[in-house]
Write a structure and sequence with these properties.
369 residues, Outer membrane lipoprotein wza fold like
Length: 369
């Protein structure tokens, strides 16, 4: 009798365990399906954004950390060098680097290229030449740059302060951008460095013309701003030379206003980047619970007349993947009406007045869209 009760208890225990197992599998399956479903832009999942001021703080910090040390100054034409050879006064003298980048020392038959070398590199080179030519058996050479020829670097485009940067020492891209006050709010996501004829430019990732190319042809290097700021790779923080032109192209801005979590302007990576209404809503933090999503409009400037046109868009259908996801153009304004507000957003003038009063501009990082 006792054994039958135990057996009955074991059966009930097994059934309960089986039920728990089925329930746990069902819950796990539900979680998996939920994770696979696309996120609703009005439910969060907003990519990390930052303002131009945030970006400029990082530019200044990285520029300070990556500043070229005085000992790393690269000699250029016009520099005045003080060359001292220990216990050989007849070889010690001040020499100015000529326009071709060379210097000449007595008793050394060939001219010596100094341009492009640091003072430490040049003194090692001179010591080797003195020894190879049998002039000094154990030469000890020191090189000091007494005068640095000013080398202008032009900074233009979407920067806080376009300027001509007087480079009196070796300078990096981050240092020049920091000196120009950083990027402007409407800056795109690339920096262009154009270099004219002269010494071949170093090979850099992302350049449109690799290093070692014809020195007489202009070269343009395209540096992705996110790579420059986020990777920590020195290949992107390229050294600049006198005569370089640093340009930051401007990019388009679109606006999202009304019943959204983060109204404001959003800077595209370039004017050719495609941004749809669904992506715009995601960046704007999604729609609020009182949004009239089926009454949204896109205000777009007619290129022929210059007037604002209203393009109706049913965001409810777009979010539910039942309607066309319209692409936004630079300067477009996506207006999402709010049913709980007295402001109807039905007049273009009201929208423009709201934008004119000042809206936050957010930058989009690589991969944000």
């Amino acid at each position: 009798m006792l054994s039958e009760r135990v057996s009955s208890f074991d059966k009930r225990l097994c059934r309960a365990a089986l039920v728990l197992l089925v329930l746990s599998l069902a819950v796990a399956s539900g979680r998996s399906q939920q994770a696979e479903q696309p996120s609703n832009p009005s439910a969060g999942g907003v990519p990390k954004l930052e303002t131009a001021d945030d970006t400029n703080v990082r530019i200044a910090q990285l520029a300070q950390a990556a500043a070229v040390r005085p000992g790393d100054y690269v000699i250029g034409d016009g520099d005045l060098l003080d060359i001292q050879v220990f216990e050989v006064p007849e070889l010690s003298r001040e020499i100015r680097v000529n326009q071709s980048g060379f210097i000449a020392l007595p008793l050394i038959p060939a001219k010596i290229r100094a341009e492009g070398l640091t003072a430490f590199q040049l003194q090692d080179k001179l010591a080797e030449l003195l020894q190879v030519n049998g002039l000094v058996s154990n030469p000890q050479v020191s090189v000091d740059v007494k005068e640095q020829h000013s080398q202008p670097i032009t900074v233009i485009g979407a920067v806080a302060r376009p300027m001509v940067f007087e480079a009196v020492r070796s300078t990096t891209l981050l240092e020049v951008l920091s000196s120009a006050g950083g990027i402007a709010p409407d800056a795109g996501n690339v920096v262009l460095v154009t270099r004219g004829g002269g010494a071949p430019a170093p090979m850099t990732t992302g350049s449109t013309n690799g290093g070692g190319a014809d020195a007489n042809l202009p070269q343009t290097f395209t540096i992705n701003l996110d790579d420059l700021l986020n990777t920590g790779d020195s290949r992107f923080n390229i050294p600049l030379q006198g005569g370089d032109v640093v340009s930051v192209p401007r990019a388009g801005i679109f606006y999202v206003v009304g019943a959204v979590g983060r109204p404001g302007g959003f800077v595209m990576q370039s004017d050719h980047q495609e941004v749809t209404t669904l992506k715009a809503l995601s960046l704007a933090g999604g729609m609020t619970s009182t949004a009239r999503s089926n009454k949204a409009v896109i205000l777009r400037t007619n290129k022929t007349t210059g007037e604002k046109e209203q393009l109706p868009v049913d965001l409810k259908k777009v979010v539910d993947l039942k309607g066309a996801d319209v692409a936004l153009l630079p300067n477009d304004i996506l207006v999402v009406p709010d049913s709980a507000s007295k402001r109807a957003w039905n007049k273009t003038g009201e929208v423009m007045l709201s934008l004119g009063s000042g809206v936050a501009l957010y930058r989009l990082g690589t991969g944000a869209l």
